[in-house]
Amino acid sequence: MPALQSWADDVESQDFPPRTETTDKDGVTTIVEYKLNDEGKKIKVTRKIKRTLVKQTVNHAVAERMGWAKFGAERGHKAGPDTATTVIGENVRLKLQAGGQKKDEVEEDENAALRAKLASKKITCRLCQGDHYTTRCPYKETLGGVLGDSADAEGAGGDMDTTGQSASDIRANGGKYVPVHMRAGTKGAGESMNNRNRDDLPTLRVTNLSEDATDADLWELFARFGKINRIYLGKDQDTGLCKGFAFVSFESKAEAEKAMGKINGLPYDHLILACAWSVPKVEGK
Length: 285
What we know:
By secondary structure, this protein is of the alpha+beta class. 21% of the residues lie in helices and 18% in strands. Strands 5-6-4-9 form a four-stranded antiparallel sheet, covered by helices on one side. Strands 1-2-3 form a three-stranded antiparallel sheet, with no helix packed on it. The chain has a two-stranded antiparallel ribbon with strand order 7-8. A hairpin with a 4-residue loop joins strand 1 (20-23) and strand 2 (28-36). 9% of the residues are buried.
């Protein structure tokens, strides 16, 4: 007997029964075959397979496309995908609606939207700059009297708007805004700001300001004492933060004196403000 050349010759030389495949009345196919295991022993392998026909409702265009005859390299092959050339993925179901609108869309609650909008806002007291409402400020009795914040002061404006024109005047003019110098009882056009030197304006120098202070904070703090001509806030050129000082120019010296008396020594944003007259620079110094 000649020596075996390879393991394939060894398998062919084994006397195995032929592979059998039978199907019963329930549609279960039984496949029986024989082979050698890893230890070189002959074993019998039995497999049972049941094929079930699954019917699925698809779009008419998809059903029509499935009935097309194969073409190209697949011409003449049996119907259905070939596992050698086709990879079948998961079915992705898309529910398309006309206009792209949802039928069961729930309207958003306006109050909930408002609460979500205000959730990122920072609450700041107008009196002490603390993180609470002004009406609940613990220093309201002291700071409110110093700064002049009261219910009477807030209601003193009546029905005047921010431009100084009353609601009756607006209705009389057909709802149009009338400039100040053109209203009844005025002397005419006002003086230009350029006719007055800025050095002649009564200016206050405010120090010990917080680095978080802004121009809007100073306008809100000083505007209650009178008409302001300009405000200059010292800022760092790199960071843009306040450098701790500012200059506030009033139109009236009496109003500036009143503001200086109220602001000097006032607790503001956890600091004590200092307010004094601004001394102009002398040329040559």
